[in-house]
Amino acid sequence: MPLTPRPSIVVLAAWVCLLGWAQAAPVAAVASSQPAGPGAARPVTVVIGSAAPLTGPQAAYGADNTDGVRMAIDELNRQHISIAGRPVLWVLDAQDDRGDPKRAAEVARTLVVAHVNGVVGHLDSSCTAAASPIYFKAGLPEITPSSSDPKLAQQGFDTFYRIIANDYAMGAGLALYAKNGLQARTAVVVDDRSTYGDSVSHAFSRVARRLGLQIVAHESIQARGMDFSSLLDSVKAINPDVVFFGGMAAQAGPMLLQMRSMGIKARLLGGDGICTPELARLAGTAANSDVICADGGVPVARMPGGEAWHRRFTARYGVNAFELYAPYAYDATMVLAHAMMKAGSTNPAVYRHDIRHLDYDGVTKTGIRFNPDGELVDPAITISSFPEGRKTALSK
After folding, report:
1. What is the mean pLDDT of the chain?
2. pTM for the complete prediction?
3. Are 74 and 334 in contact (CB under 8 A)?
4. Domains of the chain with CATH codes
């Protein structure tokens, strides 16, 4: 299906703002560090917890997140930073939450008991939902580089931060693209019954209806199931223009293959859960021209520090290591570190109040700032497809 002129990131961001999903925040001071000198005091150890699935279907995402944190910690150690006159040794505590909310709560309690100084995580919205109350009760700051459920920022937890766009922004952008970019008139919406899947699919549906796109069915599938024949029989009978999937690439890839084997021609749309090279690996040539996805942020090549960061990341972890969230995990780690530097303290009870008053120039964004609810100020989204199996931005 030929593509019509595409909306730009600027247009999408502006349109999302008109819906009332962006807020302003005051400009804050830039964090600074004090290098250690001769005769410096005894070093202080700062432990950054990383919580993500390191085993199971989402292990590739989890390794990506953890590598981003690890890379930031290594670079912080090379900078020989001192806080309150004491040189800092930065240490990673990487925990496997397996993408399971019950396990995520256990991980959160483990990190709290271990007295880590801050947390980057979790990856899944359901895991972050389970862990956030534990971090809040302990007064321990957490920055998620990937959990996108808007409700996470509506709980009143002053320890919660999100460094990407939320599902409202991604769902709205995809609905706008389906209507204006693909000229779609009908859609079937499918979710994987996860917190993330439910959130992003309902965000898409709500905006799509407001734009005049008909949602002819909304179905749910079993988490981690791979036989979609019953669902796709219904989809084939409906014959929609697009199928929106709220879930992850581990299921989206096989689903797309089964759609094509059954002669279903609808485009597959989805949020950041499917917007990863893993989808192309799983779906093969079926992904080449039939997938439209959105993720929070911009491609690495357009990030202010993206290309230099990507060269360092590839040199360390290999050309196929990068999935999606590593630069956000990297920046989340740096935000925690710079808040400590600004506060002159590594104590979470002290420095966590300075996170909201940072204006940090990161790899992913110049001027990383947060609203009072922990949402990123002025988040961007990118619409992408997979020509020749390579994730490629459609919006400019």
Report:
1. 89
2. 0.80
3. no
4. 9-18+167-296+382-393 (3.40.50.2300), 34-165+301-365 (3.40.50.2300)
